[in-house]
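Quarterly update, task 2.4: iron/sulfur cluster-bound model.
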Amino acid sequence: MDLREKLSILASSAKYDASCASSGSGTGEGRKQNFGANLPSGICHSWTGDGRCVSLLKVLYSNVCRFDCAYCVNRASADTERSSFTVDELVDLTCQFYRRNYIEGLFLSSGIFTDPDMVMEKLIAVAKKLRTEAGFGGYIHLKIIPGSGEKLIREAGLWADRLSANIELPTDKSLQTLAPQKSGKVIFGAMEEVSLSTAENEEDRHKIRSTPVFAPAGQSTQLIVGASEEDDRTIIGLSGALYRKFSMRRVYYSAFIPVGVPGREGMSDPRLPDISGPPLVREHRLYQADWLIRFYHFSPGEILEGAPYLDHHVDPKTAWALRHIGRFPVDVLKADYEELLRVPGIGATSARRILEARRLRSLSFDSLRRLGIILKRARYFVTLGGSFIDRPEDPKRIRRLLSDQDGAGLQLPLFDF
Ligand code: SF4
């Protein structure tokens, strides 16, 4: 099998990891040779924490896997074409793509084709060779293979910018049903190891500045939504714990793509739910809830307050405000930062701008709009020293008016990495 065929198989096998949204996107047959056509599958675009868009070569080292996770195209029982790279092939491929300006980095995972330590060693060997022999200074994201040892995880962090161990399913019960060879304990153990190594590395670097940095872009994980029975409350609670305990940079949510969706034929497994399409709205609301935890100082418990699922018709910040309508209107001329953050339509940046601007000049609703406040949303929740656009009287009416504006109050760069 030539390298082009391997790339096609192993990039396609990697594309369901949520960290890169556009990986493997299709190109019309007739346009394949044209200038501007998509590169062969395997190039995905991601956004860094500072908002830069970068392109990554996103591939598996091998799609041969001994595990049989029901939701995965590469599971042992799936009837799919198999292939594996060698370390040298992947290093050459990455360097060639990088030199041609196709990519700025590599996102590398693998099926578990042999003992987890040996698989992890291969991924490390690719990253190490890229850094030490090829002089590759681009971004590297390595997956941690479940079950690989602490020493290997520590070594991986010396060559990679980011590490990730996918939790995939929210509870041990679901893991046992859908991914019986995986264990939450093992996956959390890997996350803990990354978190401890990061903390130790920071201490060491504080003492000796020349200490090599460990995984400077931190760690992330992915949760599949809708393949198992857990509700949003369970998922949000788990995400909150992952951010708190393991200093996770990002939790990615990936809507389960059911059997029968074009491109996923042959995925049938009786353990999976029979749903008509991927729960994309649910995934979107979970990203919005996640945003509230990370940037709006909401606790996981506040977001749902006992309800099992997020409201699909309004974003979770608006849903919270409607449940607490007695706390509104907030006077934009007097409210502190935390109060402003809770107002639908006012983001973290616009809250800071309000505080700054009101020290220097008087504010009007027009000037609020110029500061970035989304007034079509905020209008029901704010007053300007007693002046209203709309009084927040009936939460049901406001909910109806704001329904399906779909996240307009939260600007989400969904995919950083
Ligand atoms: S371990 Fe599970 S999720 Fe990972 S490649 Fe193998 S079957 Fe797929």
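Highlight for this quarter: The CA atoms of residues 253 and 286 lie 7 Å apart.
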